[in-house]
Design goal:
By secondary structure, the protein is an alpha/beta fold. 46% of the residues lie in helices and 15% in strands.
Length: 600
């Protein structure tokens, strides 16, 4: 279906045509008619990069135009001197809430392009990390549509610099992202400041339970749109995983980057520290790379993103939080240096490539223990992951070489003003044969690369070998566990635990107790096990056959002017319970000994 068939205003059709779009994407075709002609609530589940901004932006702008009679005031880019609707009323009609500064700016810019031929329509983005005073000035000029991040919007509401009491349309874009970033309370706050009667449109790439809860809390009887399977990744993205040893993860990343000379990718890490470390290592190794994480100032973030959008950076190493809301076209790859903690987040990561009907590749670098998580991801995305082999050194050199040859072959020489130098160059190189000239040329360009990869190892993991190694390790661990269990059982049967009324306060150490037992039971060698010393008493394991001898030998002995009492630990605990009010209970030596002898 084309945009002109949807019933949009001519101004919007013309603006969309200027952007090069004619046919609707699925989410646009489904959502626009609902929003355009009905007062309804809507929940739309669609993958990142599928045209969601136009799906809500175009119909909202259209309705504001019709309801504010903009069509008569604005005839195809002929600005009127009249005030905008928001300047006349001082009130905002549409509010679009999104999780990050980057996405806020992107949505506002897209909506301004849609409203290109409606110059009286005012669209104002408000977000953190920028001058709030400048944003307040823009709001004072009027804002028919406010695009906002939650924190900055609440700040402006508290200052009474933005008015939401006349909002008719409220959009939550990337709702799942906002929940992941902890904006639940902020959203509650914002909703209480908007009219109870309004149209709410929620757009999300995934639909975890938390998002469904928000939908049920705020949205009554919504129309539900689902493009593709629930939490499904983009159809234009192919998913691969590389199996490597943990220690080889960085080498694998470099090998992949070298194998794709024209790579333009985001490399996802889990922590800010890891992100900075990997970026620093890549830069040191000569790659066009940089980092994006929460410890960067807003000025640093803007600088990095500007360079990345200009493709002066090929590898952007980022955390999930820092990369949320990034809208960069033509990414060739998304590389998961580490898989995300929440596997649903992989949907967002992979959705940053394969946009606008272009093909993309999502790569996960994993070790053998993480392979089970790939199966879980396949279940979430309803897609298969293909195991790929890390390119060998020969593969990389060959790929780089032929990439250079293709560039040389296809270079445009029509504007190269070097004709006057050709005779001298030809003469200079005349002593070289064609094969020698090519060899010199390749050696000059690839000497360092060839040296680096000369003896480079194969980084691929032989799964059968690793599984056999794991099985051996498991068998060994099982043997050790069995040995420990037998030892515990042996100790339980072989040893008796005695309680001796000496402890740390008597300056006693294990060696002293061992010495006492050996000194006072000289007629036989008593086997001694674990010794546990407390402040007032100690537990000592001795062989069962020697337990009575130790009790007889040590009971009544003196240490530091105080008489020692010895008993089986169980008896000592029971008697202590019965006489808990006494400071110390004396074991009933003779009775206990007689009973034990009878048992023997």
């Amino acid at each position: 279906m084309t945009f002109s068939e949807l019933g949009l205003q001519p101004e919007l059709i013309k603006a969309v045509g200027d952007l090069g779009f004619e046919n609707c994407m699925p989410v646009q075709q489904e959502a626009i008619p609902h929003i355009l002609f009905n007062d309804i609530n809507l929940v739309a589940l669609a993958q990142t990069g599928t045209g969601k901004t136009a799906a809500f932006g175009l119909p909202i702008i259209d309705r504001i135009i019709r309801e504010g009679d903009f069509a008569e005031k604005n005839k195809f880019n002929k600005p009127s001197k009249k005030l905008s609707a928001s300047e006349e009323s001082g009130k905002t009609q549409a509010l679009i809430i999104c999780p990050t500064r980057e996405l806020c700016i992107q949505i506002a810019n897209d909506c301004k392009k849609f409203a290109k031929y409606v110059p009286l329509l005012k669209i104002v983005p408000v977000y953190g990390g920028a001058s709030i005073e400048t944003q307040i000035k823009e709001l004072k000029k009027g804002a028919d549509i406010v695009v906002a991040t939650p924190g900055r919007l609440i700040d402006l509401l508290d200052r009474k610099k933005v008015r939401l009491e006349e909002v008719k349309y409220l959009v939550l874009d990337e709702a799942d992202e906002m929940l992941n970033m902890g904006f639940q309370e902020d959203l509650d706050n914002i909703f209480t400041r908007t009219p109870s009667e309004k149209n709410i449109y929620m757009f999300s790439a995934t639909m975890p339970k938390e998002v469904e809860q928000i939908a049920s809390n705020y949205i009554d009887n919504p129309i539900k749109i689902q493009i593709g399977e629930r939490n499904q990744g983009s159809e234009n993205v192919k998913h691969f995983y590389y199996l490597v040893h943990q220690k080889d993860r960085y080498l694998a990343l470099k090998r992949i980057a070298d194998y794709y000379p024209d790579i333009y990718a985001i490399v996802f890490c889990r922590t800010k520290v890891q992100t900075q470390e990997i970026a620093d290592m890549l830069i040191k190794d000569g790659y066009n790379a940089d980092s994006l994480h929460g410890d960067l100032s807003q000025a640093q973030r803007d600088h990095v993103m500007s360079r990345f959008r200009l493709r002066n950076i090929q590898l952007l190493v980022a955390t999930d939080v820092a990369a949320r809301g990034l809208d960069v076209n033509n990414l060739t790859h998304v590389i998961n240096y580490e898989l995300p903690d929440e596997l649903e987040q992989y949907v967002h990561r992979s959705g940053r490539t394969g946009r606008a009907d272009k093909q993309g590749i999502s790569i996960a670098i994993i070790n053998l223990k993480q392979k089970r998580r790939i199966k879980a991801l396949e279940d979430i995305l309803k897609k298969s992951f293909q195991q790929a082999k890390i390119p060998t050194a020969n593969d990389v050199c060959k790929k780089q070489l032929f990439n250079l040859i293709n560039r040389v072959e296809n270079v445009d020489t029509s504007n190269a003003d070097i004709d006057e130098f050709i005779p001298e160059i030809t003469k200079k190189l005349s002593w070289l044969s064609r094969e020698e000239l090519i060899k010199h040329f390749v050696s000059l360009e690839f000497e360092e690369l060839l040296k680096y990869y000369k003896d480079a190892p194969d980084l691929n993991v032989d799964e059968s070998v690793e599984k056999e190694k794991q099985r051996r390790e498991e068998r060994q661990k099982s043997k050790e566990r069995s040995k420990e269990a037998r030892k515990r059982d042996f100790n339980k049967e072989h040893f008796a635990t005695l309680c001796i009324t000496v402890g740390y306060k008597d300056k006693v150490v294990p060696q002293r107790i061992i010495g006492m037992i050996n000194e006072y039971t000289p007629s036989r060698r008593i086997e001694i096990g674990k010794i546990d010393i407390n402040n007032d008493y100690s537990f000592v394991e001795v062989s069962r056959e020697g337990a009575i001898d130790v009790i007889d030998a040590l009971s009544g002995r003196m240490i530091r002017g105080r008489e020692i009492f010895v008993d089986f630990a169980d008896n000592f605990v029971e008697e202590s319970k019965g006489k808990s009010k006494q400071k110390k209970s004396k074991p009933r030596d003779k009775n206990i000994k007689n009973k034990e002898r009878k048992r023997k």
